[in-house]
Amino acid sequence: MTQQRVDLHLHTTCSDGHYSPQELVELAVNAGMKAIAIADHDNVDGIDTAMKSGTELGIEVISAVELSSQWQDYQDIHLLGYGFDHHHAELTRQLSVFREFRAGRNQQIVEKVNRQLEGEGRGPLDFLAIEKSAGGTLGRPHIALALRAAGYVQSHDEAFDRYLVPNDVTKRFFPIDEAIALIHSAGGIAVLAHPPYVTRNHTELEGLIEKFVVMGLDGLEAYNNGVNQDGVYWLISLARRHQLIVTGGSDFHGNEGSAITIGSGVGRLSIPYSCVDEIRSTLHLRKMKIDA
User: Could you tell me the pTM of the whole model?
Assistant: First the structure.
């Protein structure tokens, strides 16, 4: 029997993905996925549509979100929330405040990019048009798309190298303890996304995990595109040593030319359905403790 596969880290047009929630669900069905999670950056707007499409097409859709967090000198630590109430008032309020800050940041980036373009004798980007095209959480990839559409660059990498990195504006991050607490307050579980992108030093990473567990961390995204198969096995071992669940996802955005596809990608990534079972089991146990 073929192993049932899942992908618990997908992005839509509600953040910086290329496909709408409905389109993404259809792609996941065509890719043979048994279950998926829409994990947009600081945004839960696509979950209802994805769940409705999932019901119609016979695929499980789990509520998810990806939060940008920090701890001490470690910035942009990505934290995944799963199985929460995506209509939870405090969660949606906090995400709205965060997106408002990001919108202001991205407007500043566009203003700086436009000053560079002016110096090159080129016309400016239209921030309002970029914001409208994003349709959700605006991010630097949307600015990169505008640069490509204007013919100023040939690829996302070139857009970042020539314009976005030199004209960056400092991001805002959730303190990781507050991010974990926010996900828990909405009834969900908190999982560290693609751990190798935090640090590739195993000793350093394990030290961080020990601290995050005290804060309430529930799991590790062991199946991810930042490692080969040996790396996946090591992360699973790390999770078990600290009584954490194991999840996995491709971090699929649908960018043109990317090697990452739904349910797969770098290193022949293959994520088993057992990851969904672990999420549901942990959610069930937490609910039993609350109800007791």
Answer: 0.84
174 by DSSP, 3-state: which?
A: strand
Q: Report yes or no: 33 and 7 within 8 Å, Cβ to Cβ.
A: yes
Cα angle: 124, vertex 129, 130; to 5 degrees: 85
pLDDT digits (tens, 9 = 90+) for 142-170: 899 999 999 999 998 999 999 999 999 88
Q: How many residues can be counted in the chain?
A: 292
How do the domains of the chain map onto residue ranges? 5-94+188-291, 99-164
**Architecture field, domain 5-94+188-291:** Alpha-Beta Barrel (3.20)
Residue 103 and residue 143: Cα distance in Å, rounded?
Answer: 12
